[in-house]
Amino acid sequence: MLQGFEWNVPADQKHWKRLAGAIAGLRAIGIDNMWIPPGCKASSPHGNGYDIYDLYDLGEFDQKGGVATKFGTKEELFEMMAKADEVGMGIYWDAVLNHKAAADFTETCRVVEVDPKDRNMVISKPFDIEAWMGFDFPGRGEKYSSQKYHWQHFNGTDTNAANGKNAIYRIHSKQWSKFVDDENGNADYMMFSNLDYTNEEVRQDVKRWGAWICKELGIKGMRLDAVQHYSEVFVREFIDHNRKSVGGDQFFVGEFWVSDVKPLKKYIERMAPDFYLFDAPLLHNFSRISTTRGADLAKVFKNTLVAVKPENAVTLVMNHDTQLGQTVETPINNFFIPLAYALILLRADGYPCVFYGDLYGIRGEHASSPSCGGKLPDLVLARQLYAYGVQADYFDSPTCIAWVRRGTWDKPDGLVVVMSTARANQKKILVGKTHAGEIWTDILGWEIGKVEVDEEGYGIFSCPRRCVAVWVNQEAEGRDGFGKL
């Protein structure tokens, strides 16, 4: 899949059009599905959607500064969806279900202040605040949903409008959910006005929205934002309702951003067998190995989700939160980014997610050109054409590893990947007697030379210093498509 945005895409209301124009080319190199940004109405036309105001406004109503969202109008969203449907690309929606922002008016409610480092610890007596918790969606009225939101639908907030004080306030008559992560004692509260999923009206309205948007747009699945911050009981309820209403093949992946694989594994085991999480521990390994002298490349998959739950892991190299300057910035040395993409794209396990910013470049204060020296499309295409069959690993050095995919009866070409975090290196690799006599070259063009597979099926394959080489038969199907994307 492709994450179809980075944090700093222009707030020009043209992103749906940009994606529509790119879809055919993306599908041609092997992007089967695209995760698009949260296109519900945000607090302003510049909001990325995580500051969510109205789930049911997809750029249709004049609210919060205009009709269009940062990404465009609902009509343009429909046009982009139609382009995806034409080429058989699935679209995953980014669902922000933890909170609401930019309320229409304040309401008086009784709260207690809690310790931000231990949300279970109350540090004040009960008192009244003016909270931004009144939502009546005047631009939309009652179209699609008649549900309005008031303080009773939330369990916490972060601002007292009466005096401007920012703190974490829990509604006095309510508790945080017990079915969340234990970050800061209890991870239920994250930002803005925190939805209370013990409230029946909240649960029913959000479940209705989930089925509605799938039917309205024809999306094939969802990325669930910040699942460790709201009730996992409701997450299961939401998925079950969605699949019963829309179809059992809907895809769901949750964002649970911790570097320890153990809570991820436990969370998955409490969910449906086909529920996915992003492999945050793998991304942390990429960062550590690329920035730490003496780090062991052969242990890159140690304590990762793809190692313990490969059938539930979405692997990635960067996203909108981990890019430089963002909330969970996780820097990866530039030389290592193509190695990391080879590790997620060209191996058997995991469901790889390519980042828009790596494919097209990143804007803003930390602007950068497309990563991998512009070779990322070639790596994606290599997955589509050659990453099939039995996989054999050569993880026998802390600075140089390799693996081979030997192909299948219908995808016979296969490939060899060699990478190094230190000096130029080489490995003798068995590709199979069926490949004897073939001449293999590096599709990326970074390693010069040719390898002839001997009569026993072996070849000596190399890579440059701190680099990766992807070796394929020079006569393989599709070889003429590389270097042109």
Structure in words:
By secondary structure, this protein is an alpha/beta fold. The protein is 23% helix and 25% strand. It is built from ten helices and 25 strands. The strands form five sheets. An eight-stranded parallel beta barrel has the order 1-2-5-13-14-15-16-17. β1 (2-3), α1 and β2 (33-36) form a beta-alpha-beta unit. α1 runs parallel beside α2 (74-87) and α3 (200-217) crosses α4. The longest helix has 18 residues, at 200-217. The two termini are 18 Å apart. The model has no long low-confidence stretch (mean pLDDT 97).
How would you summarize what this structure contains?
By secondary structure, the chain is an alpha/beta fold. The chain has helices at residues 15-29, 74-87, 200-217, 232-246, 261-269, 280-291, 305-308, 337-345, 356-360, 376-386, and strands spanning 2-3, 33-36, 41-42, 52-54, 90-95, 99-100, 105-115, 118-122, 127-134, 154-160, 165-171, 193-195, 221-224, 251-254, 276-278, 313-316, 351-355, 391-394, 400-405, 415-420, 425-430, 439-442, 451-452, 458-463, 467-473. An 8-stranded parallel barrel has the order 1-2-5-13-14-15-16-17. Strands 6, 7, 8, 9, 10, 11 and 12 form a 7-stranded antiparallel beta sheet that branches.
**Tally of individual helices:** 10
Helix content: 10-25%
By DSSP, the count of extended strands is 25
Secondary structure category = alpha/beta
Question: What characteristic shape results from the CA principal axes?
Answer: elongated
Q: Any low-confidence stretches, pLDDT <50, length ≥5?
A: none
Q: How would a textbook summarize the main sheet?
A: 8 strands, parallel, barrel
Kindly report the spatial arrangement of strands forming the biggest sheet.
1-2-5-13-14-15-16-17
Beta strand %: 15-25%
Mean pLDDT score: 97
Radius of gyration: 24 Å
Please report the distance between the alpha carbons of the first and last residues: 18 Å
